[in-house]
Amino acid sequence: MVWKTLESKILLDVSPFLRVRQERIEIRPNEVINDFYQVDLRSFALVVAVLENGNLLMIDQYKHGPRRKVLNFPGGFLEANERPEVAARRELQEETGLEPATLYPLGSFIDNGNQRGCMGHYFLAIGCRQTAAPNPGDLEDFSYVEMTKSEVGEALEMGRIGVIHHVAGWGLAQTKLAELAAL
């Protein structure tokens, strides 16, 4: 059975960054949860960037969620009414100055099965080459790290990729890279 929302009340709204709702949900006939909470966060695009030489470009940067420096793939929030592919290309260009020869969509996923969270749109960018100087914005302080595929795997095993969205992006990219290699 599909759950039915009987009532939804906004408890906190600091749009576009965060909205918290309390909902009354009917999960089965005559069975209601009166305080089911939903969290809405901004949608994002994440790009696993493969350079022309076959290496990957990652960003070594402090992230306040894990409260430490971690390795990330380029990415960021979608602007209002922006298509995910447009956001992926924009974020890749802004953060790295790279342009891909080919951009493959890898899927779109909600990050929390019950509370929702955010929608992540994942992409694999092949044949990336420098076409402009990076313009990451004033809040970004990071360094670029060029890595082989095995080095990315080692970084994951060592806990250096500390945000699940980037772990997911790497897993999705590996599947697509294997598919492309088999052609």
From TrEMBL:
GO molecular function per UniProt: hydrolase activity, acting on acid anhydrides, in phosphorus-containing anhydrides; metal ion binding
GO cellular component entries: cytoplasm
Cofactor(s) needed for function: Mg(2+)
Signal peptide: none
InterPro entries: Nudix_hydrolase, NUDIX_hydrolase-like_dom_sf, NUDIX_hydrolase_CS, NUDIX_hydrolase_dom
Nudix hydrolase domain span: 41-180
Protein keywords: Hydrolase, Magnesium, Metal-binding
A Pfam family: NUDIX
Ranges in coiled-coil conformation: none
Family: Belongs to the Nudix hydrolase family.
Protein name per its UniProtKB record: ADP-ribose pyrophosphatase
Organism in which the protein naturally occurs: Cognatiyoonia sediminum
Taxonomic placement: Bacteria, Pseudomonadati, Pseudomonadota, Alphaproteobacteria, Rhodobacterales
